[in-house]
Amino acid sequence: MREIMIxxxxxxxxxxxxxxxxxxxxxxxxxxxxxxxxxxxxxxxLKILAARQMRGTPTGLKIVNYFPFLIWLTGLVMxxxxxxxxxxxxxxxxxxxxxxxxIIGSPPVKIQKFEVADQSLESQRDHIVxxxxxxxxxxx
Length: 140
What we know:
Keywords: Membrane, Transmembrane, Transmembrane helix. The chain is about 80% helix and about 0% strand. It is mainly α.
């Protein structure tokens, strides 16, 4: 039973890491296509990128944040898991994921630094980035 619980604790991180790499690949593709915002078509591409990246993130974060801890707590009560398992199979993988995210950076923050051709495009870009960071669903 211990091996199953350890696998269940690690599964969310092992599933989220490739998803984070996929999101980063989407950002890199966008950056190569749109090095600066020149017109409305570039803003539409940004809206599509932001909406795609916002879609699965809330659910994924809930699963990654709560599921491993609940499995560990259940295993601790059942006597199959120990306090050291909390560090080895939850804290350590989260630290690795945090390091990965710190290294690649946040796409919305990077996009906010892109050059913009005019003021109206800048306000649209800033609104999209604000929604992307602070909301769970796009409003466009």
